[in-house]
Structure formats: structure tokens, C-alpha cells
Design goal:
Distance between the termini: 36 Å
Number of helices: 12
Structural class: alpha/beta
């Protein structure tokens, strides 16, 4: 069993942010979590020095990885600041603006980055993201998936992946795991299924940046990012750190879900990320025995909302036993039932997204810097 003392002893060989005192002596180590041989550590730095501190982070990660018994190490840079008075025009007094991560930069080799988001959980967003990715591969695109829902990663289960990612030849970057023709990366590959991720916001954001930029994605036509539900730090970080081609919003048809979907659309609008379209998931249910159709969650609400807000409507996906069962088994319906009505619904959504990308995604420009208040 690896102990915290062993981790701190290993970090004692790494100079801290000032280049003189060791990391433990500098007081910059703001958190260490150890679980089943996997070590997660955070180092607090001045956000203005994020780029300059990257070699220090890499040395710290290598030092921890060299400890006997350590099977994986993730070291993140955090950027917490002392409280003070907010800048004029950026909210109430009590907190200065805070920026996380790096400036908005493209990912080498990745043509389009697409966020799949929802205003609330439980609407099947991850299932749509998974099948959208597989659907795009069936249309001839090279596709990857980043599971950005760090607190509730679903992609390992949806893609049926139980392996751990390997390291690139340089020993610094992770290799995504390929399944059904899609390159996949998830924090779920590094922790046990069901294990909680107990991190503060800065640690989450730094880990997201690593999963995004320290992975060998190779040449991709599209990187699908499965966002966590809601409108929080992860969504803002993605808009801040990479030029998003656009967002796909997933909702069920009922009014309660649409209220939250509307918030998600408004949030992406504020950070100038275009909406590629809205998907109505669990749109209807067709009984496998009698063939009768039931609109369990109402029907058509997402289409009407899209028309009202002036954004594209990408299509409907049914509430279906086959989709649920195949998802639980790690077998995306688009790949395992390609000629079925369920798969066809997903393929049509993917085709509309692909057509938008081919026509020139409206969001192919860097997103603005975002100032976030504590």
C-alpha cells in the first residue's frame, strides 16, 4: 500500500514553483489522494505561470510513478487565488476573477471538437454521445471521445472497455483506447468503477486539461466531448481552452427537462459557442409486443424549443429496451444493430452533425477568455 509519506518523500526531489525549495517544503502540494495504487496530486501555482510550471508537473508525476506499488499517477496544476474585491463589471464584491487552464488553442490533428451537453442529468446524454461518435465513424469520419464527466464517467461502460490506457513512446502522454473504431479517453480508465472522485474544482479542471491535451489523439475529424450535466466549470473550461466547433444539446421532451436545456443553450450562447443542434432523446416508446406507441415523456418538446430559439433540430431517439440493454453491455446500438430503427435514428443525428461540419462548422473560431468568480 502506497502511503502519503512515500509520495511526499518522492516529491522532495522535485523543486517547487520558486525553483529552490522542494515541492513539499514550498507548501504548493494542495492535495494527495491514493486509491488502489493510483495517486492523484494537486500543485497550487500562480495561474499566470501555468505554462512555465508544466515541466515541474511532469517531473512530479514521474517521481510519483517511480514509487514501488504505484500503478498510475496524475498530477494536476491548480490556480486558486486569495479572495478580494471583484473587478468592476464582473459580479459582486468578495472574489477576484479566476482563470483556469491554458489559452484557447487547437488540439494538434483534431479538426473539430464537439461538446455534447445537457442541462440536467438522466436524459441519456452519454448514450447519445457514444452512438453519435460511432455513427460518425460509420459515415467515414475519424472520431475520438473524451469523457469529461469526471465525477460520473460513463464511456468505459458504454464502449465496453475494461483495459487501462498505455503510455506513448515518450512516456509522457496517454494512448486512448480504441473501441468500435472510436478512440476513447476517460478518467474511468484510471479509477475503479463506482469509486468516487473527491476533488475540488481546480483539481477537476486541471485533470480535464490533462485528459484533453496529454493524450495522443492523432488525426481526428471530430472529437466528441461528453460533458457533465449542468452549466459549470467543466463547460466553461472547455469553451475557454479549446476552439469548440459547437455544442449538441440533449433533452427529453417534457417541460421540466426543457427548462434546463434552455439554460444550457443560453450558457453556450454567452461564451459564443454555437449550437449545432438539439436532440430529443426518449422521444417515444414503441411496445415490442403489440407495436403500439406511447409518448412517455410527451413528444416534440425539444423540436418546438429548437424552433423557438432558432437553433437546428437534429432528430429524435426513442426510449427503447434494445438501446438500454446494449448500452449496459458496452455494445453501442449503432455498431451492434446497424440496420435497426433504433440505430437509424442515431445515424440520422450523426449525419446532420457531419453535414454541418462539412459545410463549415459555425464555431470554428477561438472562444473568448472567460473570467470566473469564486
Amino acid at each position: 500500500m502506497v502511503s502519503r509519506d512515500e509520495v511526499m518523500a518522492a516529491l522532495a526531489a522535485v523543486p517547487g514553483p520558486d525553483g529552490r525549495a522542494s515541492l513539499p517544503e514550498s507548501g504548493a502540494v494542495s492535495g494527495v489522494t491514493i486509491r488502489d495504487g493510483k495517486v492523484f496530486a494537486a500543485i497550487a501555482i500562480d495561474p499566470a505561470r501555468a505554462r512555465a510550471m508544466e515541466p515541474m508537473r511532469e517531473k512530479a508525476e514521474a517521481a510519483i510513478r517511480a514509487i514501488p506499488g504505484v500503478t498510475a499517477a496524475v498530477v494536476t496544476l491548480t490556480a486558486e487565488q486569495a479572495r478580494g474585491v471583484a473587478s468592476p463589471g464582473h459580479g459582486a464584491q468578495g472574489a477576484p476573477p479566476r482563470r483556469h487552464g491554458r489559452p484557447s488553442e487547437p488540439l494538434p490533428g483534431v479538426k473539430h471538437i464537439i461538446a455534447v451537453a445537457s442541462g440536467k442529468g438522466g436524459v441519456g446524454k452519454s448514450t447519445i454521445a457514444c452512438n453519435l461518435a460511432v455513427g460518425l465513424t460509420r459515415l467515414g469520419l475519424k472520431v475520438g471521445v473524451l469523457d469529461a464527466d469526471l465525477f460520473g464517467p460513463s464511456m468505459p461502460r458504454l464502449f465496453g472497455i475494461n483495459a487501462k490506457p498505455g503510455l506513448a513512446p515518450d512516456g509522457q502522454k496517454l494512448l486512448p483506447i480504441e473501441s468500435f473504431g472510436v478512440k476513447v479517453m476517460s478518467i474511468g480508465f484510471l479509477i475503479e468503477e463506482g469509486a468516487p472522485v473527491v476533488w475540488r474544482g481546480p483539481m477537476v479542471i486541471s485533470a480535464l486539461n490533462q485528459l484533453l491535451r496529454e493524450v495522443v489523439w492523432g488525426e481526428l475529424d471530430a472529437l466528441i466531448v461528453d460533458m457533465p450535466p449542468g452549466t459549470g466549470d467543466v463547460q466553461l473550461t472547455m469553451a475557454q481552452n479549446v476552439p469548440l466547433a459547437g455544442a449538441v444539446i440533449v433533452s427529453t421532451p417534457q417541460d421540466l427537462a426543457l427548462i434546463d436545456a434552455r439554460r444550457g443553450i443560453a450558457m453556450f450562447g454567452k461564451v459564443e459557442v454555437p449550437i449545432l443542434g438539439v436532440v430529443e432523446n426518449m422521444s417515444y416508446f414503441v411496445c415490442p409486443h403489440c407495436g403500439g406507441r406511447t409518448d412517455v415523456f410527451s413528444h416534440g418538446g425539444a423540436r418546438r424549443e429548437a424552433e423557438k430559439l432558432g437553433v437546428p433540430f437534429l432528430g429524435e431517439a426513442p426510449l427503447d429496451i434494445a438501446i438500454r440493454a446494449n448500452s449496459d453491455d458496452g455494445r453501442p446500438v449503432v455498431a451492434t444493430m446497424p440496420e435497426s430503427a433504433q440505430a437509424n435514428a442515431m445515424i440520422e443525428i450523426a449525419r446532420r452533425v457531419a453535414d454541418t461540419l462539412a459545410a463549415g462548422a459555425p464555431g470554428a473560431k477561438p472562444a473568448p477568455r472567460i473570467r470566473i468568480l469564486d
